[in-house]
């Protein structure tokens, strides 16, 4: 709760401290020494507020402020000692011998009360103050970590763009160089996908329908440059297309299929499936492995792993393995969480 410590302060000042004071015979002293009881009450509330607003926060600052906090604590003890040392009355000697020896025979009841209430106020104010400062430190750490994660994700997405551009332009160059009939349709798809990169990829989350449509266009673009030796199977089964997902998260795995699973002389099948049911998202790919070296081939996969670890630390599972000469990827994300 955002204002929990404020509510604790109010409860202590309005309810707890007055009840603790009433345990002692304050009412009897009030009739005879009003100015003293009021002074002690004002002093106790002042101690509480100063500790909460100044003393405890200063303990978490620089050395100069910590020394100031210690000075305030010493000052509060000194003022309390002065208040407790005021002699309001001289207690009458006890005519009955109870056989009990008092440790501090010269300390009167009201002086004990002042010190007891001071210790209660000091302890409670420090406990609440330390709790508040601890929560603030925790919140600052979370904010710094969130900002760091956000910057890291933006870096990964920024790296995906030139990586995608290089590979796609390389494919378009081959199509135009060979005067392939699919060159112009491929260029149109590339323009549409580039528009997605500049409008949606800068967002933290996009609708699942848009991301799936981008994958569909990407597969269509890559398929145009393939010959009859390679077939592509794309299976999409989405129940809720309005679910939000990070943009450009899946395309690297799909791109990996076309980088390593295509041969101009050997038959191969690229299988891509995207499914979602009740918030459970499953993405899987499989392709043959042809040892063709590409620039930056490991960068995209590594970035995706890191993004997943940041965005879904406890709600995703990524499996990538080579089964013989077939490379398989399976990604599961619980989007409902």
Describe the 3D structure.
With 337 residues, the protein is of the alpha+beta class. The chain has nine helices and seven strands. It starts with a helix and ends with a strand. Residues 95-107 have low confidence and may be disordered. 60% of the residues lie in helices and 15% in strands. The protein is rod-shaped. Helix 3 (34-59) runs antiparallel to helix 4, helix 5 packs antiparallel against helix 6 and helix 6 (183-199) packs antiparallel against helix 7 (208-223). Strands 2-4-5-7-6 form a five-stranded mixed β-sheet, with helices on one face. The chain has helices spanning 4-23, 26-32, 34-59, 63-85, 109-177, 183-199, 208-223, 251-260, 299-311; strands at residues 206-207, 230-238, 244-245, 268-277, 280-288, 316-323, 326-334.
Strand content: 5-15%
Cross-sheet strand order for the largest sheet = 2-4-5-7-6
Helix and strand sequence: HHHHHHEHEEHEEHEE
Number of strands: 7
What characteristics describe this protein?
337 residues; 5-stranded mixed beta sheet; two-stranded antiparallel ribbon; 9 helices; 15% strand
Short description:
The chain has 337 residues and is α+β, with helices and mostly antiparallel strands. The chain has helices at residues 4-23, 26-32, 34-59, 63-85, 109-177, 183-199, 208-223, 251-260, 299-311, and strands at residues 206-207, 230-238, 244-245, 268-277, 280-288, 316-323, 326-334.
Write the layout of secondary structure elements.
Blueprint: H1 4-23, H2 26-32, H3 34-59, H4 63-85, H5 109-177, H6 183-199, E1 206-207, H7 208-223, E2 230-238, E3 244-245, H8 251-260, E4 268-277, E5 280-288, H9 299-311, E6 316-323, E7 326-334
Parallel strand pairs: 2-4
Antiparallel strand pairs: 1-3, 4-5, 5-7, 6-7
Helix pairs in contact: 1-5, 2-3, 3-4, 3-5, 4-5, 5-6, 5-9, 6-7, 7-8
């Amino acid at each position: 709760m955002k204002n929990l410590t404020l509510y604790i302060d109010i409860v202590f000042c309005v309810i707890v401290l007055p009840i603790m004071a009433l345990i002692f015979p304050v009412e009897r002293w009030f009739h005879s020494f009003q100015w003293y009881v009021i002074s002690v009450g004002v002093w106790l509330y002042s101690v509480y507020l100063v500790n909460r607003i100044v003393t405890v926060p200063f303990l978490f600052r620089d050395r100069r402020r910590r020394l100031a906090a210690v000075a305030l604590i010493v000052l509060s003890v000194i003022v309390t000692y002065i208040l407790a040392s005021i002699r309001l009355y001289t207690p009458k000697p006890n005519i009955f011998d109870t056989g009990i020896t008092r440790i501090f025979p010269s300390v009167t009841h009201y002086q004990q009360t002042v010190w007891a209430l001071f210790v209660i106020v000091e302890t409670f104010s420090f406990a609440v103050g330390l709790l508040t400062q601890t929560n603030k430190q925790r919140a600052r750490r979370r904010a710094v970590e969130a900002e760091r994660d956000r910057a890291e994700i933006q870096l990964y997405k920024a790296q995906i763009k030139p990586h995608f551009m290089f590979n796609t332009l390389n494919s378009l160059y081959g199509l135009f160089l060979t005067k392939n009939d699919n060159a112009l349709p491929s260029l149109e798809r590339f323009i549409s996908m580039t528009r997605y990169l500049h409008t949606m990829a800068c967002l933290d989350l996009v609708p699942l329908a848009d991301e799936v449509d981008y994958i569909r266009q990407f597969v269509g673009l890559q398929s145009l440059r393939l010959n009859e030796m390679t077939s592509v199977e794309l299976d999409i089964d989405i129940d809720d297309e309005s679910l939000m997902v990070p943009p450009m998260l899946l395309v690297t795995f799909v791109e990996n299929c076309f980088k390593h699973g295509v041969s101009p002389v050997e038959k191969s099948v690229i299988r891509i499936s995207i499914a979602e049911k009740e918030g459970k998202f499953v993405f899987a790919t499989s392709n043959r492995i042809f040892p063709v070296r590409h620039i930056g081939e490991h960068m995209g996969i590594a970035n995706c792993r890191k993004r997943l670890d940041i965005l879904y630390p406890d709600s995703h599972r990524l499996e990538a393995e080579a089964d013989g000469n077939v490379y398989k990827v399976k990604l599961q994300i619980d989007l409902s969480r």
